[in-house]
Amino acid sequence: MVLSPLASPSLPLFDRIAYIGIGLINSSVARVVQRDRLAAATVACARSAVNRAAALHLGLVDVVTSDVTEAVTGADLIMLGTPVSAYESLARMMAPHLSPGAIITDVGSVKETVIRSVTPHLPDHVHFVPGHPIAGTEHSGPEAGLTELFVGRWTILTPPAGTNPAAIERVRALWESCGARVNFMNPAHHDRVLAITSHLPHLIAYTIVGTATDLEDDMQHEVIKYSASGFRDFTRIAASDPVMWRDIFLNNKEAVLESLQRFTEDLTALQRAIRWGQGDKLEDLFTRTQAIRRSIIEAQQA
Ligand code: NAP
Asked: What is this structure's pTM?
């Protein structure tokens, strides 16, 4: 267990944490919070009765509700963990019920549009510390969460200039208690980095699997049968939640389109190399990519 200097078993980090959405990410945080008693009280808000029942049954929180305003009342930390398209209306609904000094944070995979859609609705007496844990799986829902999900992974915080430093430190302490390493970025830079490291790879996986789906029946059967030859890894990525990924592409449009443009140019260059039998070009690229893989392993992010 990694305990932040601010947390100790006898001194919770927060009085009441309200998780808005209790899917893969928020339920993973909730598992650590309950295990290490990082909050005196916890509540989860989800629309579906199935998710609320699961959150209680799994012991993720003390109380569940479908009412956002009830969830945030009296909370000193509110953690948004829904698809990002829901953030604006959630912020609008919760705003009149937020306690003075409350911290609002989130786990959304894009940051510029999140900040633009949430900030205008929040009262001056609260603190908004946007965040994004660079960890996840293709699974969704409260059952999918894992206590170890964030261990050794990065969480990026993108607080706007002027954000209360004590609020930032408390959010950092929570992530460090989950075993994460915390870094800070400007939101636009975050979105450009994630466009290439996460969003473009997902788009490519969705495309490849989509192409295979459109093949004639007999070919499709063979693709599934022999999927272990490479296709299988793409299908894992392409099994990620459709709503969450729809929102990511629509909310990080410019950065994704920019990386896609560069990718398309590089793909065309590869096409040409294959057509003209330029083996040296192919070998040169594949050698460089091998080195990237080694660096990722050395950075313990494999
Ligand atoms: P998830 O497992 O699909 O859970 C989403 C949760 O939000 C559920 O509890 C769902 O419950 C609730 N929800 C969905 N739509 C809602 C709406 N319109 N209004 C209110 N509640 C709603 O999602 P997740 O994978 O944890 O992702 C949550 C956030 O984390 C996303 O913004 C995503 O970008 C980000 N993220 C995901 C990953 C990943 O690998 N999955 C990694 C890093 C960051 P009900 O349907 O019952 O309301």
From this structure: 0.93
